[in-house]
Amino acid sequence: MKKFIPLSLFAVCFALVEAAVVVYLRQLYYPEGFSFPLKVLPHSTLWIEMLREAATLVMLFSAGALAGRGAWQKFAFFMYAFGLWDIFYYVWLKVFLNWPEGLLTADILFLLPVAWWGPVLAPVIVALSLCISAVVIVHLDERGHLFKLKKVDVAWVAFGALIILYTFMADYKILEAGENPPPYRWGFFVLGEAIGIIAFVKMLLRK
Question: Angle CA(15)–CA(16)–CA(20) in degrees, nearest 5?
Fold first, then answer.
C-alpha cells in the first residue's frame, strides 16, 4: 500500500504539467477567458494536442504498471493515477487561473477520438470512483483475495462506462461546429455511475 505515496506524487505533479499546458493554450486561444462555443484550432495544433493526450494516457498507464505486481494491481494503480491526476488537474487550474468558477462549470474534457465536454463535477465524480475502487482492489489483492471476473461483471461495468462516455461525447458534432452544447445529460450520467458502482459492489460481496 506504500506504493500509493510515490504514485500520488507522480499524479499530482503530472496534473500540474497538464494544467500548465492548458494555461498556455488558453492564453493563446482564449485570452478573454475560456468559454463555449469552442474556437476551432489549427489542424496542426489539434493533432499535437491529441498526441499529447494519448501520451498522457500511456504515461499514466506505465506508472500504474510499474507500481503493481500483478495484472489486477497494475490496472488498479492505473485507475488511481488517472483519477488523482484528473482531480488535481482542476485543483491546479483553480490555483493558476481561479477557474473553474464552480463544479457545474462546463469544460472541454478530451479530444480523443472526438471532443468530449461536461460540467467539471462529472469527471471529478468518475475520478473519485476510480480512486476508491483502486484502493479497495489493491487492499484486497494484498490480502490474498484473487479476483476472477465473470462475463456478467465485465458486461455491467462496461455498460455503465459506455453510458457515461455517451454523456461526454454525444454532442461532439455540435462542439466541433462551434456551437454551444445542449444541457448536460445528468440522468444518463447518474444511471451509468450507478450501474458501475452496483456491479463493483456485487463483485466484492460475492468474494
Answer: 115
Long-range contacts at 182-190 (CB < 8 A, ≥ 24 apart):
184/106, 184/118, 184/119, 184/122, 188/163, 188/164, 189/118, 189/122, 189/163, 189/164
**Residue entry with cell 469544460:** 107
Q: Coil, strand, or helix at residue 118?
A: strand
Separation of first and last alpha carbons in the chain: 20
Instruction: Give pLDDT tens digits for 88-126.
Output: 999 999 999 999 999 999 999 999 999 999 999 999 999
Q: Please state whether the predicted TM-score (pTM) of the whole model is above 0.85.
A: yes
Please report, to the nearest 10 degrees, the dihedral formed by the alpha carbons of residues 134, 136, 137, 138 taken in order.
Answer: 80
User: Do 10 and 81 touch, CB atoms closer than 8 A?
Assistant: yes
Contact 162, 190 (CB under 8 A): no
